């Protein structure tokens, strides 16, 4: 039995929608979600837009305030209660938990070299003692993400979407995190690049012992990369199961509807919604 | 009789860094009622090809002198390349040809009601009066499955959900009864369930109106679901074209095979995802010979493809691939 790295119970995130002093209206983006993410797992979260999958990911990174319920992180060395985080806790937690963004064109500063982009988290967190140490670390992580070391001096505009996403992954992994939330990180990429990035994430998971929460609206991508799938709808978890089980025998109607809507590559198997 | 014939289309863009080739020697025709899928990765020239049919490319686009686009209408043939004045182009822009764009939020003006925008284009392209245009618009909104069309008519784009907006866009594009509909990634920004609905709707409308559709997408499974024929593009050239079944079941070009191998398949979760090696080259460093040769894992060094441009060779009836005749795979 592996330990749960992330554990939530009845986690809710609400956003205020305005309204008066006494009739405050709120939007429940995440509604009573209880989930356990075991160490080393590759967990997929799927759902349509507005289903709360991104908010759940951000709540687990302590990037949006948690309204109620409990959420905790425990990697065996350090523990955090995500509902009660002091500024010092948050700094320490950022070293353990990182985010990979969707759009590699928007996520990288055009005015920084690739080396500086990857080095920034190391500098900000004060993880390296000298410039030489930073450089060594940047080179290590760049090599792991299959970036050409000659490219470190260049600026992001010189790179294609796939290379940019590799830079963005290298930056997220520079501080040696344990838990990584990848939010639609292949949605903006072409299929051949998508395959490359998915393979890279899988190999990094094994090499660095990472735990991934992989947020995606694309069920076939999730089916190929994740060990475990959580289906969300309107902020709630509709169904969660090991990938094979879920795709072979979905239990909930909503999951079935989602699976049926995936366009098939077989021209003779045309579906009607 | 075909609806549109595109012959030897080449488009270059003049930029500060030099001339960039976006489309090179692309030819295809489309019959009424036929759906042609244009597939390719970013930078493959599929959108530029589509926009050329309406001469919608930006002013720095240079069309090669030998290219011809002929549109065959009931009223007679139209030579699209010869159209110069904006007034003349009304025939193709919104008249005989309509276009649906990827991002429905960006395609509607945010401060004008959906209805006003629908009526405006009908007044330009048809002889209807305001009242008739309004009635037709509401009828079209109803046809594409929008509930309470009369209410929606008076609403703004932001008041509609993504799927609704794309439906309204389709209703608007079809209200002028175009002969040809160009759909540029119409479902890419939508959720799978809504994508399935929009695809169904488009199929129904083709059957009903009998128009031709050029469907641009990067998603081969969407093409498999909608198109009759497909053209696979890479760096501005057609790599392979033919009936959709043939191309997907028996791809003759290494690039098409590469795209298919990179796609996650639901019926075989153990199949490895194989990316196409290398990256798309910079548009300023266009490879010689076959544009795909630097990334083609099936080629041996020194092959003809490095220097010679392969012709489109017929591999089976109606199925063409940019390969030399000696490389045509054994017939299945």
TrEMBL record, chain A:
Listed Pfam families: ABC_tran (PF00005), oligo_HPY (PF08352)
Source species of the chain: Ruegeria halocynthiae
Compartmental location: Cell inner membrane
Keyword Transit peptide set for record: no
Keyword set, alphabetical order: ATP-binding, Nucleotide-binding, Transport
Protein name: Peptide/nickel transport system ATP-binding protein/oligopeptide transport system ATP-binding protein
Broad class of the protein's primary localization: membrane
Membrane topology according to the record: Peripheral membrane protein
Family, per entry: Belongs to the ABC transporter superfamily.
CDD domains xref list: ABC_NikE_OppD_transporters
GO CC field: plasma membrane
UniProtKB/TrEMBL annotation, chain B:
Membrane topology qualifier: Peripheral membrane protein
Annotated InterPro entries: AAA+_ATPase (IPR003593), ABC_Ni/Peptide_Import (IPR050388), ABC_transporter-like_ATP-bd (IPR003439), ABC_transporter-like_CS (IPR017871), Oligopep_ABC_C (IPR013563), P-loop_NTPase (IPR027417)
Protein name: Peptide/nickel transport system ATP-binding protein/peptide/nickel transport system ATP-binding protein
GO molecular function annotation: ATP binding; ATP hydrolysis activity
Residue stretches of biased makeup (Basic and acidic residues): 295-311
Annotated spans, Disordered: 284-316
Native organism: Ruegeria halocynthiae
GO term, biological process aspect, one: transmembrane transport
GO CC terms of this entry: plasma membrane
Keyword tags: ATP-binding, Cell membrane, Membrane, Nucleotide-binding, Transport
Domain of life per record: Bacteria
Localization per record: Cell inner membrane
């Amino acid at each position: 039995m592996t330990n749960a790295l992330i554990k939530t119970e009845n986690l809710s995130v609400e956003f205020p929608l305005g309204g008066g002093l006494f009739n405050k209206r709120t939007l429940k983006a995440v509604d009573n979600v209880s989930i356990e993410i075991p160490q080393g797992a590759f967990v997929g979260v799927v759902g349509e837009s507005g289903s709360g999958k991104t908010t759940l990911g951000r709540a687990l990174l302590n990037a949006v305030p948690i309204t109620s319920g409990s959420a905790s992180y425990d990697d065996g060395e350090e523990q955090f209660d995500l509902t009660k985080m002091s500024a010092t806790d948050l700094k320490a937690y950022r070293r353990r938990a990182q985010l990979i963004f969707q759009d590699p064109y928007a996520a990288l500063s055009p005015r920084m070299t690739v080396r500086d982009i990857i080095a920034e988290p190391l500098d900000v967190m004060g993880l390296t003692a000298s410039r030489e140490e930073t450089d060594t670390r940047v080179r290590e992580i760049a090599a792991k993400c299959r970036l050409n070391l000659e490219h470190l001096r260049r600026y992001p505009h010189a790179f294609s979407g796939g290379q940019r996403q590799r830079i963005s992954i290298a930056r997220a992994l520079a501080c040696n995190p344990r838990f990584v939330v990848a939010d639609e990180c292949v949605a903006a990429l072409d299929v051949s690049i998508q395959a490359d990035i998915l393979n890279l994430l899988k190999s990094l998971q094994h090499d660095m012992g990472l735990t991934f929460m992989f947020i995606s609206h694309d069920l076939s991508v999730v089916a190929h990369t994740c060990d475990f799938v959580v289906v969300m709808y309107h902020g709630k978890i509709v169904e969660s199961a090991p990938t094979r089980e879920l795709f072979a025998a979905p239990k909930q109607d909503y999951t079935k509807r989602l699976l049926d809507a995936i366009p098939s590559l077989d021209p003779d198997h045309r579906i009607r919604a | 009789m075909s609806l549109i014939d595109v012959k030897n289309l080449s488009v270059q863009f003049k930029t500060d860094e030099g001339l960039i080739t976006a489309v090179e020697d692309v030819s295809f025709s489309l019959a009424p009622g036929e759906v042609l899928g244009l597939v390719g990765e970013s930078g493959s020239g599929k959108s530029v090809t589509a926009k050329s049919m309406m001469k919608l490319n930006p002013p720095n686009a240079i069309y090669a002198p030998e290219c011809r686009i002929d549109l065959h209408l009931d009223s007679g043939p139209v030579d699209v390349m010869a159209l110069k004045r904006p007034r003349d182009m009304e025939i193709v822009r919104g008249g005989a040809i309509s276009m649906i764009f990827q991002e429905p939020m960006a395609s509607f003006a945010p401060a004008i009601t959906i209805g006003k925008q629908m009526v405006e284009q009908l007044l330009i392209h048809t002889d209807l009066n305001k009242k008739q245009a309004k009635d037709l618009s509401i009828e079209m909104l109803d046809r594409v499955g929008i509930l309470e069309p009369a209410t929606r008519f008076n609403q703004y784009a932001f008041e509609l959900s993504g799927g609704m907006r794309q439906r309204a866009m389709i209703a608007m594009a079809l209200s002028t009864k175009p002969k040809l509909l160009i759909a540029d990634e119409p479902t890419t920004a939508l959720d799978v369930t809504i994508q399935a609905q929009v695809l169904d709707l488009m199929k129904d409308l083709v059957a009903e109106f009998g128009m031709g559709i050029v469907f641009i997408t990067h998603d081969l499974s969407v093409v498999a679901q909608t198109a009759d024929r497909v053209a696979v593009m890479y760096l501005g050239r057609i790599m392979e074209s033919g009936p959709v079944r043939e191309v997907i079941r028996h791809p003759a070009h290494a690039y098409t095979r590469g795209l298919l191998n990179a796609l996650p398949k639901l019926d075989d979760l153990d199949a490895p995802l194989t990316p196409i090696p290398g990256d798309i080259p910079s548009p300023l460093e266009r490879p010689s010979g076959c544009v795909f040769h630097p990334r083609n894992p099936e080629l041996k060094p020194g092959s003809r493809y490095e220097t010679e441009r392969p012709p489109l060779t017929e591999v089976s009836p109606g199925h063409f691939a940019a390969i030399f005749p000696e490389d045509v795979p054994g017939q299945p």
